[in-house]
Each structure stands twice: as structure tokens, then as C-alpha cells.
Write a structure and sequence with these properties.
Pfam families: BPD_transp_1. The chain is an all-alpha fold and 347 residues long. The chain has two domains: 91 residues, no CATH class; 216 residues, MetI-like fold, CATH 1.10.3720.10. Helix 8 runs antiparallel to helix 9 and helix 10 runs antiparallel to helix 13. The longest helix is centred in the last third of the chain and has 34 residues.
Length: 347
């Protein structure tokens, strides 16, 4: 009878190591609390500073006693890494915590079923809702996708597959558009479309401004995805007698399908929270408008901006609730993009 030897992991911490680490952590937390409570070093920043200092000191003492003086450098380096991670994570966690705690207070059922046509931002939070802003955001995203997704993917295909004479200039334009401030996109559509064409302030005009910002994101992300498609697939298609466009359409694009969907989602996430272009292009209606090509329209970013500018407790609460809804939308898009990207890498 043969026995399978269970593989050992000598680098993994054992129970004694875990208990020691938890003890050091507890001492650091208690010490930081004592420093904040009995000295002038108060507040969250004081607690974090004291915690890092005490944790490093205690960990260094424990490490020197167990492993000698060589452990001192490792302990200091480990503490610096932990501190850097905390400095990166804490602002994000603080934003999420503040948004959730302040935004959840304004959630109610009619928020998603009513508009502000019979209420104002100064009324109690239970009056009115943001249905008009949700519908406007949906129109803006859909029209911007119709304009920018085909243009961005076709541009990426030209830059990666065709590589014609104008590829260098187009690549330069795409890179330049990536750095265009969002307010410039809004002013561009306002002066070149709204003032001189039959299309006036509406969801369609706002979507054109957002498309200007979305095209570079979709193009550059699609480029990276298409470059990951193995060259052998292209050569196999050409070797079987297929033309270049059939090879691209039937082999390259299907192989990069999930990546192109990811590029689209990232493009939508890029524009979902933009406010500056919408100030010049959609007008900001308080009622529900089902026609995206006529009359003023609203959107979640505009709803938030309007609530913040009024500055009353009721309007600020509406703004925080709108920020929470918008944050959930954007985070959902990023999670979907990561999920599709991971599935593509697994394949």
C-alpha cells in the first residue's frame, strides 16, 4: 500500500507565527489608542501614525529576539510596505464609506419611480425622485455607445491590422484626444453643433460630447486587446486563402470578442460620471423627457451637481444619494469589465 506524502509548505506561517502576529497587532492597536487618548496627538492621522510606529518597533523587537539583528531590516521594509498599502487603500475606503453612509439616508421607493417635476431640491427628501436622471443617463450612454463603439473598434482595427499610411497620424490624434479635458468636449459640441445645427440642447447633443471622450478609451483598449490575438491565427486564415478583411472579420474579431466588450464597458465607465460636458449640452430638466433629440434632458451627474450647488440640507442629501447610485453603477461596470477580462485571459 502506497502512501501519498502531503506536500509541506515551510514558508507558510504556523499557528505560533499567527498568534505572534496577532499579539503584535493587538499591542500596536492598544498602544496607538493610548497615545491618542492621553497625548495631544489625536485624530485618525495621529492614530495611524502611532500605530505604524509602535507596530514597527514591537515587530522589530520580536524579530531581533527570534532571528537576530538581520531581522531588523526586514521588519522596517515590511512596515514601509504596509504603510504604503494603507495610504493607498484608506482614501478609497474613506470615499466609499462616506458615500454609502451619507447616500443611504436618502433612499426611498419613489426615488426610482418619480421625477422632480412636482418637487424641488429644497423640498423634503421624500418628495420627488431621480427617474428623469436615470432615463437621461441611459439615453446618453446608449447614444454615445452607438457613435463611439463602432468608430473606436474600427479605428483600432485599422491601426493594428491595416496599418495604412495615415496610421501614425491617427494614432497621434487618438493619444491627443485621450488628454482632452471634458469641459473642452462640451464646449466643442456647444459651439460646433448646438449653435449652428438643428440639433439643440438635448440628450443627443450631450451624448456627442461624451462620445468625444469615449472614443479614445475604446480605441486604445481595443488596440491592446487586438494585439493579444496570436499572429498564428491571422497567418492560418491567410494560408487557407481568406482575404485580409475576412480574416479580420471571421477570425481576429471573434477571438477578441470578450476583450472588445471589456473595452466598451470601460468606455462607458469613463463617461458615466462626467458632468462638465453636460452643463453645456443637455440643459438639465427636472421632468421626465422621453425624446432624446428634443428639449432639455437630465442625467445623474447633472442631478448631483445641481444638488451640490444649491447647498441646502435637502439638496445636499439628494446629491449624496445620486452620488451613491452613480458610484454603484460605475463600480458594477468595472466589475463586469474585470470579469470579462479574466475570462478572456483564462481562455
Amino acid at each position: 500500500m502506497t502512501m501519498t506524502v502531503k506536500p509541506r509548505k515551510p514558508w507558510a506561517p504556523n499557528r505560533k507565527d499567527r498568534v505572534r502576529s496577532l499579539s503584535v497587532l493587538a499591542v500596536a492597536v492598544f498602544g496607538a489608542w493610548a497615545v491618542v487618548s492621553f497625548t495631544g496627538l489625536s485624530g485618525k492621522i495621529g492614530f495611524i501614525f502611532s500605530f505604524v510606529l509602535i507596530y514597527t518597533l514591537v515587530q522589530a523587537i520580536v524579530g531581533v529576539r527570534l532571528r537576530g539583528s538581520k531581522a531588523l531590516g526586514d521588519t522596517v521594509a515590511q512596515s514601509i510596505i504596509y504603510l504604503g498599502s494603507a495610504l493607498v487603500f484608506m482614501p478609497v475606503a474613506s470615499i466609499l464609506y462616506m458615500t454609502v453612509t451619507k447616500g443611504i439616508k436618502g433612499l426611498h421607493f419613489s426615488l426610482f419611480t418619480a421625477s422632480m417635476s412636482n418637487a424641488s431640491f429644497l423640498d423634503p427628501v421624500g418628495n420627488g425622485g431621480l427617474l428623469h436622471a436615470l432615463v437621461g443617463t441611459l439615453y446618453l450612454v446608449l447614444i454615445a455607445m452607438v457613435v463611439s463603439v463602432p468608430m473606436g473598434i474600427l479605428t483600432a482595427l485599422y491601426l493594428t491590422e491595416i496599418k495604412g499610411k495615415g496610421a501614425g497620424f491617427i494614432q497621434f490624434v487618438v493619444q491627443a484626444m485621450s488628454g482632452v479635458p471634458s469641459v473642452v468636449a462640451g464646449l466643442f459640441i456647444f459651439t460646433s453643433v448646438i449653435l449652428v445645427s438643428p440639433l439643440k440642447t438635448s440628450a443627443a447633443a450631450g451624448a456627442l460630447a461624451l462620445a468625444v471622450l469615449m472614443i479614445p478609451t475604446v480605441t486604445r483598449t481595443s488596440q491592446e486587446v487586438l494585439l493579444l490575438v496570436p499572429t498564428d491565427l491571422r497567418e492560418a486564415g491567410l494560408a487557407m486563402g481568406a482575404t485580409q478583411w475576412r480574416t479580420v472579420a471571421m477570425i481576429v474579431v471573434p477571438a477578441a470578442r470578450n476583450g472588445l466588450i471589456t473595452a466598451t464597458i470601460l468606455g462607458v465607465a469613463r463617461i458615466a460620471g462626467e458632468t462638465a460636458p453636460l452643463i453645456f449640452t443637455i440643459g438639465g430638466a427636472d421632468k421626465l423627457n422621453m425624446n432624446p433629440f428634443k428639449d432639455y434632458q437630465s442625467a445623474l451627474p447633472f442631478y448631483v451637481w445641481k444638488g451640490l450647488t444649491l447647498g441646502t440640507p435637502e439638496s445636499l442629501q439628494r446629491a449624496w444619494t445620486g452620488i451613491l447610485i452613480l458610484l454603484i453603477l460605475v463600480l458594477s461596470l468595472f466589475v463586469a469589465a474585470r470579469s470579462l477580462g479574466g475570462r478572456r485571459m483564462a481562455k
